[in-house]
Every structure is written in structure tokens, then in C-alpha cells.
Amino acid sequence: MLLAGAVCTVRSSKGEEVLLGSSFTFSCIFNKQCTKLIFRNGTQIKYIKKNISKEVSVNIENITEFNTLSCRCEGNPEPCGIDIKPGYPPDIPQNLTCVQNMNSHNVSCIWTTGRSTIIDTTCQLRVHGDLHLGYRSIMNSTGFCHSTFPIKSSVMSQLVVWLNVSNTLGIKTSEITSGEITHLIMLSPQNNDKSRLNISSLHPDTMYNFQIRRKINHTVGLWSDWSQPKRKKTKEEAPDKALDVWYLQELKPPESKSKCFRIFWKELNISDAKGKIQRYNISVLEQKGKSNSIIAVPPSRNQSICCYNCSVSVSAVNSEGQSPVKIIQLRLPGLHTGLLSHKPLNNHSIALFWPKFDIAGTEYVVHWYPVGNIEGIQWIRVVDTTAHITGLQPQECYQGAVTALRSSGPKMATIKGISSWQSAPEQGPDPELHWKKTESSGVAWSEIPQKKRRGCLKKYTVYLMDNLKGDIHNFSVDHPKRQYVISGLSPRQCYNLWVTAWTDAGEGPRGSVLPFCAPLDSEKMLSLVILAGGAVLLACLILLCICQFSSVHRRFLCCCQCLLPIIPDPANSKCAKTYADDQVNVWKCPRRLQEFWGQLHELPRLSEIKFYLDQWDSSVNEEPDNVEVEEVPYPSICTYIKSFSQESSSSDATQFTRITDIMEDYISTHGAISGGEEEDEYEKGERSLDEFEFFPSTHSPFLEPLVLTGGKLTLDVVKIDCSEFLDCT
């Protein structure tokens, strides 16, 4: 095939349409001498410099897609080229189907040509007896051909046709096909005629789609296409099936004397509900005749009830009525000691086995639910000792029971740790220390979330690592326990603790690590504290007993007075000596000296002071005996007044108490301050006397009063005597 252009002429050895996967030669013949370039889909594939020959060629192999081949001279942008289309030749026509519309005289036929040819393919239908050479059409991309032709004569009853398909790669013709025209007639799927058809056995409150198709009769013609669907919903009806009801015992509230149960019921399926369930009616009838009504609204499918020796009825209600009532007596089941066993059947079901509870033919109720989710309870009723439990989720742990429904009362056997497939836990528990002692500690740990368990937990392992030695000890704890007491700890030793969980598939990862240290021996410390406290208490008791003796009493008083600070004697101050006989100018002295001076002038002269001790008997007017007090010039810092004689009774202490209160402020505990000292020195001593007020008074309830009973006492000559503290009697 040659295609001429202004610069050159191109040629393909197999034309523009070639067999898919074939090879051919592409040539270019140039009109003038030039440097020749050949391109394939815009990419240069050959370069030839100027030479005598005007023709260049290139071999194209295994072509599988549309290609554009072109040539041009170097320096001249105008090309010449050809488009190559690969494809297949047609197959023999087959699967001819012809249809005549009842309202038309045209017949439409459709047939296939096998696989798609990819390249353009012409279809032709020829009718025997028709002068028309053929009815042409183009095959579509899916390999179908379609032609429509008229029926020339109304008396024509036989139709004879043959088919022809062709393209540049080949041509195929089918065998002659004949048939009755009446068998080719197809009615339209819809018309204006109305007809009625009663359809039975439909479910109430159910949406249905309706479609129709037609043909002339059962033996003549072809079925029409399906009409467009129409939706229609049936009416509701009252439910005609009773609910399936089961119950489990619940923990009763502390204030309730009745037994508590949780009632469960299964939701009716669409065909049994016959409409939308609006509520569930629950009636509780006790033995005494007392009844109680409860209404539950979907999606709720359970209800808690507390009663004693009662029965419960449950029914479902829709807009058209109520289902039959299901009555069940609430009785506590007895426990059966038989063992239940199970084995997985696949990832979603298991087989459960148990020994006979009672005579053959007993009905059993098998219930199960995910651990921690009693709302997901399911149950089945069987009369055999085997049950297939389906609908289980992999890596989920279930528990359940088998209950035998006997006339004498139900009997139940429980089972835990049901799983169709499981793996090691995904997460470990987090431990925490509840208490710790010197050699032991109590540890507890958190629950692992259900989704992280990946099956049924069997046990926990507690790991304890000694931080000093690096030793690791482990302790096994069966599930569901979540606490453990670790013993054998060393005081003041630090440890790291963690916990892992196990399923039948293996051990999971550890949780958080808990560091802690064992405390000191608190019992030994407590005993030492008790012993020390007891010793101090005993010493105090002994000291109190000893202080009851008067001699010890006086010596203890002198010892305490030895600890007192030096208090200056106001009588020895410069101001006191200056105004000894001048009461008018005594205001020039410090405040404390003025007070002392006022008290002094109420007494006899200081150098001749005597203590008069009145008798308790106020009726006696006689002057009491005098007690002579004499100064003892000891150089000690303590003041000790020695009694040389005691002529008056010890009961005459009333007057003494008043006088000692007056003298208490100015008796010196050390020698006199020289009269040449300045007034401010006395004031400093006076301040030190004020600061001394925090010392306890000598008038202690544990000490006897010190009574001066004789001699002469002057403030200028009072000295301190401690020499006989240890030998006083």
C-alpha cells in the first residue's frame, strides 16, 4: 500500500490493518536527495545520510497496538506517514436471535461473531426472497451485530436468513437459518391494558419488587423483556408465634428479701413478627396472687425482676395485636457436678459435650455469652447431650451453662473458658503495691481489657527482680485472682516487679514495671521505742517518789536555784542608798525600785526586819515568838537560809507567805552590787530579772514551802549558802 506526500511516499508490506502480533516492512520513497529520518510514534528509529538511493526501509516486528510510522528530510518539518492498526479477522456468525414487535412489521435480529476484532468489521444479513442485497451494520466493540428488516408480505410465514461478517483481515459467512415467523414474535413488556393477579404466600409487613413480561401464548412467540420494577409493601398482622424466653439468677439488693432474676427473650424474625414490634408486655405473677406489669421498649431484650416463688409471662405487641403469651416459672436451678467439655470446629463454632443429667428425652437449654457482657447472651434448646455453638468471634472468651429442664426442678452445669480460636494476650496488666513490710509485700494488678486478651486468660505470672543481685524470681497466680503476697524480701533492698498474662496460646507481654524498696524492720524499731519510753517513764516515777522526801525536796530546790541568773539586789543600788530616808525624791528611782521602796517603808527598818508568824487561831492576841535569822557568809552562788532555832509552830505560815511574796522581787542570789555603779547598770539587772520570769516558781505542788523561822535578816547582808545541800536532814 502506497501513501503519497509532498516530500515522500510511504508503503506498508501488509497495509494499514495488520494481524495482531505480526511483523511487516515499512518503506519511505523520497522525492529528492536529503538526509533521511524515520520515526515510530514520534521517536526517531533510523538515520541515513545523503546517498544515491531515494528509498529507505525498516522492519516492524510483533506489533500489538496502534502505531504511527513517518519519514521526513532533515531540516524539513513536513513528514509523510501511515497509521498501522493491529486486529483480528472475524469468526463465523452464531447465536442468531430475531424478534418481531407485535405492533410493527419489522423484524430485528442480533448475533455474535465470537471475539472482538478490534478493527472495523462489517455485518450483513440477507433474507431469502428479498430483493435487497443485504442489510448492513457495523459490529460493536463487544462483538455483537444488529440488523432490522421489514416483512414484505403478511402471508409470509417462513423466514430464511444467512449472515456475513468481514474486515480487511478476512470474511466469514454463516449457514442458512430458517424458522417460523410466529416463533419470532415478542410482545412489548408494558402496554395500557390493565390486568389483575392475586399473589399469595407473601409475608406481612414486607417490601416486595414486582416485574412482568409477556408473550403471545404459552406455545407461540417469545417472552418479552422484564418491565421496570414496582415496589409494594404488605400490611402488618398480629404476631402468631410466642417468644423464646430464658432467665438467669442475679445478685439481689441488700435490702431485698426476694430472689432476683434477669429475663431474656429472643427477637422475633420478620416473618414471625409480621410487623414492627412496638413493645413487650411483661407480667409477674406471685404465688400470693399479687401481679405486676412491666413494659419494655425495643431494642431492649431483657428485664431484671425480683420476686419470690413467681412466674413471668412475656409477649410482643405490634400495631395489629399481641403475640401468644410465653409463661416461664422462675426457679433456682440445682448444681450438677458433671463436667462439660468442648472442642473447636472452626474459627466461629465449637462442639459442646456433657453427660446425661436425667432420663433420655430431657430438654436442655444451652446458653453462652462473652465474658463481661451478659447482654450478649444466646441460647439454644436441644434434647441430646451435644450442642453445636455457632456465631462465635475469634479471640473472644465465652462462658455459659447447660440446664436440664426437669419436672422436679432445673439442674445446671456451668462452663468457662470457651473460645473457638485464641492467641497470646496483646497487653500486660499494670501492678500496684497495696502494702509492704520488712520481709513481705502485697501486690495487685489491673484487669486487661477484653479486646486485648485475645482469648481466655488462664493465669498470671508475677516477676520479681532483685536490683542488687540481678536475680529474677517468678510466681504463678491462677486467673481470676489478681493479687499476690511476696515473701522473703530483704530489708532496705530495692526490687522491680512486673506481671504477664497467659492464655492457652502462650504468654503475653509484660505490663508496666513497678519499682519498690522493702522498709526497715518496723517491729524492732517499735520494740526499741517501747523500751526507751518505758525506761523514761520508770525513771520519772522513781524521781517523783524520791521527791516526796523533804530533804530531797529541799536539796532539789537549792539545785534549781543554782541555775537561776544573777539578780541584782535593789537595796544595793545607788538610787536606794541616796534616797534611803527621802521618800519625797524616791520617784527618781526606776519603777521596780519605787515599788520595792513602798513595800520597804511598810516594814520595820531593813537592818532589823523580823518575821512575825501569826498562829492560826485568830482569837489569840499575844505577839508571836520571833525567829532569829542570821547571815551565813558562804562564798557560794546559791542562797541557802539556815534556821538556827524554831520556836513557833509550823502552822504559823500564813503571815510568812505574805511577806515572802513582797521580798521575792529583791532578794539577791549573789553578792551586793556596789553603790558606785551607775543607774543604767541597775536597769540592766532589772531587765534580767524580768527575763527570768519564765523559771518555775519555788511554790511547786511537789515541794514543801520554805519557812524562815528565826534570826535577823537584812537585804544588804543576805548571802548564798550551798555547802550543806548534800548533808541536810
Automatic annotation (TrEMBL):
UniProt superkingdom: Eukaryota
Keyword annotations: Disulfide bond, Glycoprotein, Membrane, Receptor, Repeat, Signal, Transmembrane, Transmembrane helix
SMART domains: FN3
Record's keyword annotation contains DNA damage: no
Annotated Fibronectin type-III domain residues: 425-521
Family matches, as InterPro entries: FN3_dom, FN3_sf, Hematopoietin_rcpt_Gp130_CS, Ig-like_fold, Type1_Cytokine_Rcpt_Type2
Transmembrane region(s): 525-547
Membrane topology type: Single-pass type I membrane protein
Location of the protein in the cell: Membrane
Entry coiled-coil feature ranges: none
GO CC list: plasma membrane
Molecular function terms, GO-annotated: cytokine receptor activity
Family assignment from sequence similarity: Belongs to the type I cytokine receptor family. Type 2 subfamily.
Protein name, UniProt field: Interleukin 12 receptor, beta 2a
UniProt source species: Cyprinus carpio (Common carp)
